[in-house]
Design a protein that fits this description.
By secondary structure, the chain is an alpha/beta fold. The chain folds into three domains: 253 residues, TIM Barrel, CATH 3.20.20; 31 residues, no CATH class; 301 residues, Transferase(Phosphotransferase) domain 1 (Transferase(Phosphotransferase), domain 1, Orthogonal Bundle), CATH 1.10.510.10. An eight-stranded parallel beta sheet has the order 9-8-7-6-5-4-3-10, covered by helices on one side. Helix 6 links the parallel strand 8 and strand 9. Helix 5 runs parallel beside helix 6, helix 9 crosses helix 10 and helix 19 runs antiparallel to helix 21. It is elongated, with a radius of gyration of 32 Å. 36% of the residues lie in helices and 12% in strands.
């Protein structure tokens, strides 16, 4: 059976090593899994001896495998010698691919360094091929491959030199180099590359941007390596064991992978699917690669027969489209490079419903067409930037109203002082210093565009939610509260549906319409994509609205936003900000971790408090009656609340200093034992293990430096 290397379809659900496929634009038949021989030999410290390697070879060959990959420098030539002995009586039955380019004298201290021993040039090719043939004990190799493009030898030099062997392929070359090499070969009548070896796995999908479409255009078969990411995707490493790895090649790579939070999420999804289908993580990761467009024969490696058997079992099943999609989503690259990131702009000038050739559908569907809905409108940024550059001096505006103030900025309603624009109302955001403007302004624009697909319209707002509650509380009945809550929930849902986390959700970031009590979720300057792993460790926000798990080391999440929504729901019932009567310091953080929450008012319906759906209308009528009684008796209103503590702070600010002061010599938040309450939202990572109780001494909290007064103004 052969397989079209450009197709994502496999003609049967299961395969075998003797279901041979064609390699690129050639008639060469190879097994659907290629056995890599990097582990044949012990010179590099992570291979096995000749006897153990022979067991791996025999099993692969007995199962029908015929495709072997080696290199002139693997284990300083030991790999080729072992392989040559194994196939000495099987030469016609196997396909041997070896590589040249690596300079063995560069890594051997007892050898004189020879600069021409490595590289892509003709001398290196001739001498290394001659050495490989001697070690393999054969008169020819089936495929000679350039091991890596070294940016020194002209492409036409090595393409002409390679024309004298059976088949040629290349490893680790940029897409432009692959395209130029094969174009020159076709023009000159030389042998083009029929295969490309390149790194590809769930952690590294860079292949899909340029190399995969180049291979599709040039009809080059893809032979991916590094499929389990140096062992990270096997599932055998924990966060603790990965951090303790020794600094040898594979251990170093796994340690690097382990420092990226997104990689753990990918591994978690791989492990989850493996349990669902009773397979191993290795088999899931390999099966995902096998099904990707253009893949001909993934390169597998094994030190033992058991490892090889595990790899070969991936041919027995096929991940479902739903499982493939789950893996695609969790591993989707967070940044799309140019020009792919501009595809939605290009599409505007092409028109819709124009067919994309089948060979380019993978890259088109995955990264190009979808960016039309996923990227910030660059034209809008340019327009806003031009307007911003016009604001040389505040004299151009009359500031008529302050809508809201946060830790980083103020929002104003303003009018132009220019007579030609006198009646034009604009909204200005004034950052408290230039650093905040640079760090948060464009990020906020991008988040607004992605979440709402438009700019936030606040021309008729009353101000933020808390200001609205302060002035209108006695007129806000339960029906209106539910309406406001509905609008707030819808806004947060839009943020979450766009796969964003708000990360600073409180009443000061909710803008309310003066006339209709409509509300908008705003101030997305701190928001990030849910899968964004590039964040720093600083926590910004307002202590009462931050979920307890955040203080104990968990990452912000959609669940932590829901916790913040619960605090806003409480504020709707009282008109007061939570914990306004206490100082916002490390003691409040401990209380929140212990489960302390604001007291629910008497007029709050049970369905509102526990989010139950039954008897909602009836209970709201009861609640409305109770609300009027409490207001009349002067028991419910911001006017009759406890006096606000002078150190209760409701602007977003850095909190790391407070969190650090929660720690003593033998205590950290990570090992603090908190009280467990049924209504707490569990957003803590599974790796948190609670240990000893706290032993806190009285701490003096230093005040923060005052913010810079000179700010910058921007349109929003």
């Amino acid at each position: 059976m052969t397989r079209d290397t450009l197709s994502n379809d496999i003609t049967s659900k299961t395969q075998a090593l003797d279901d041979y496929v064609l390699l690129g634009r050639s008639g060469l038949r190879v097994s659907p899994l290629c056995l890599g021989t990097l582990t044949f030999g012990e010179q590099w410290g992570y291979g096995v001896n000749k006897e153990e390697s022979k067991k791996v070879f025999d099993l692969y060959y007995e199962k029908g495998g015929n495709f072997f990959d080696t290199s002139c420098n693997y284990n300083l030539g030991e790999s080729e010698r072992f392989l040559g002995d194994y196939v000495s009586d099987k030469r016609s039955d196997v396909v041997i691919a070896t590589k040249y380019s690596g300079n063995t004298t560069a890594v051997q201290k007892d050898k004189r360094f020879n600069p021409n021993n490595g590289g892509n040039h003709r001398k290196s090719l001739v001498e290394n091929l001659d050495g490989s043939l001697k070690r393999l004990n054969m008169s020819y190799v089936d495929i000679l491959q350039i091991h890596f493009y070294e940016y020194r030898t002209p492409i036409e030099e090595f393409m002409r030199s390679l024309d004298d062997v059976l088949y040629v392929a290349v490893s680790d070359i940029p897409s432009w180099g692959l395209a130029r090499a094969n174009t020159i070969a076709e023009l000159r009548g030389w042998s083009p590359f029929i295969g490309l070896q390149t790194r590809y796995n769930l952690l590294d999908r860079s292949l899909e941007f340029d190399l995969q479409p180049a291979c599709a255009e040039l009809d080059v078969g893809i032979l991916p390596w590094g499929i389990v990411a140096e062992g990270f995707l096997t599932g055998k490493y924990t966060r603790e064991s990965a951090a303790a790895l020794k600094p040898e090649a594979r251990g170093f790579s796994v340690a690097i992978h382990s420092k990226i939070e997104k990689n753990w999420k990918i591994l978690e999804e791989v492990t989850t699917i493996s349990k669902e289908i009773d397979r191993t993580p290795v088999q899931v990761a390999l099966n995902w690669v096998q099904q990707k467009p253009g893949i001909t024969s993934p390169i597998i490696g094994a030190r033992t027969v058991t490892q090889l058997e595990e790899n070969l079992k991936t041919l027995e099943f096929k991940l479902t489209p739903e499982q493939m999609k789950r893996l695609d989503e969790v591993s989707k690259p967070t940044e799309i490079p140019f020009p792919h990131s501009y595809a939605y702009i290009f599409d505007r000038h092409l028109g819709k419903n124009i067919e994309v050739p089948k060979k380019f559908e993978p890259v088109s569907n995955d990264f190009l067409i979808n960016t039309r809905h996923d990227q910030l409108n660059q034209f809008d940024i340019a327009r806003l930037t031009r307007l911003t550059n016009d604001l040389k001096n505040i004299k151009y505006f009359n500031l008529s109203l302050t809508y809201a103030e946060g830790g980083f900025s103020k929002i104003y309603q303003a009018t132009w002082s220019d007579n030609s624009k006198k009646n034009e109302i604009v909204i200005l955001k004034r950052f408290k210093n230039l650093q905040y403007a640079r760090k948060y302004f464009l990020k906020e624009l991008e988040s607004n565009h992605r979440c709402y697909k438009s700019d936030l319209n606040v021309n008729k707002t009353f101000g933020d939610l808390h200001k609205y509650l302060q002035k209108e509380f006695t007129e806000i009945n339960w029906k209106l509260k539910i309406r406001i809550l509905h609008n707030i929930s819808a806004g947060l849902l839009a943020v979450h549906h766009s796969n964003f986390i708000h990360r600073d959700f409180h009443s000061g970031n909710i803008l309310v319409n003066k006339y209709y009590a409509n509300s908008n979720v705003g101030d997305l300057g701190l928001s990030r994509l849910a899968n964004d792993t590039s964040l720093d460790n600083e926590i910004y926000g307002i202590i009462p609205y931050i979920a307890p798990g955040i203080f104990k080391g968990s990452a912000f999440s959609k669940e932590s936003d829901i916790y913040s929504l619960g605090m806003i729901m409480w504020e709707l019932t009282t008109g007061c900000k939570p914990f306004a009567n206490v100082e916002h310091d490390h003691n409040l953080i401990f209380n929140i971790i212990d489960g302390v929450r604001p007291e629910i008012t008497e007029d709050t319906s049970q369905c509102y408090a526990v989010l139950m759906k039954r008897n909602v209308i009836y209970q709201f009528y009861q609640a409305e009656f109770k609300r009027i009684m409490l207001i009349d008796s002067k028991k419910l209103s911001p006017k009759f609340s406890e006096k606000t503590h002078p150190k209760a702070v409701y602007t977003s600010r850095p909190l790391s200093s407070y969190i650090s002061k929660c720690s003593s010599t033998n205590f950290t938040l990570n090992n603090y034992i908190s009280k467990e309450l049924e209504f707490d939202i569990d957003i803590e990572s599974k790796s948190n293990v609670l240990g000893t109780k706290r032993n806190i001494k009285e701490l003096n909290i230093n005040s923060y430096n005052s913010y810079e007064k000179n700010g910058k103004y921007f349109f929003i």
